Amino acid sequence: MIRIQCPGCGSTLNAKPSLIGQTRQCPKCSTPITIAEPAPLAAPEDGAVSEAVAHAEVSTTEALPVHHWPERLDRTSVYLICGRAKLAALWQNNGEGWMLKTNSGFVSAPRNRDQLPSQGEFRLVELKLETQEAGRHLIGLMVYQLAARWALTSLERGDDAICAKITSPGGLNKDQKNVVRNAMKELFMHQVWEHADGVLEYLGNTDYHSPGTQGGAAGG
Q: What kind and span of H or E run contains 149?
């Protein structure tokens, strides 16, 4: 087994060697952890065992979920791309494709490819919607980390090309959560998101590592 430490909460975990290179979530704080090859260890002195290791809190990553990135956009969802502190692009299933946010408003990304940044720190945010008798309702939110280079230039190649640029689960910082909250209020009527307790709690808390929430309760 490989001993690893969660960068989010500091918990010590065990992982099978077969999981090297895969990304799993910490079972305690949901921080994404990429399981790496362990560094060689020096031989212990006469069988001495580190007291810290002997008393370390150990969990296992065997039961952690494997992340499968979407291969195409869910046509019932709305997608946002957030930069460090502002909205970069928007997708709705309305036939317009990806729309790039500019100082003068939204413009077609494929038709304005010269304005697509070639690098940067971006998150793909999926706003999950469900159609019920009373209309559409927001039921969840998921966040994906995008590649640092050439992610947004893929927007000119069609709606689903951005999915190939997902590298891992992502979290939202305080500014990005404000961006998403403001976008929700602009995009949807109040009735769409007013009962999305889990989403509202996620966007209002100081958890900047979890990759989103599903259902009525945060983290559910």
A: none
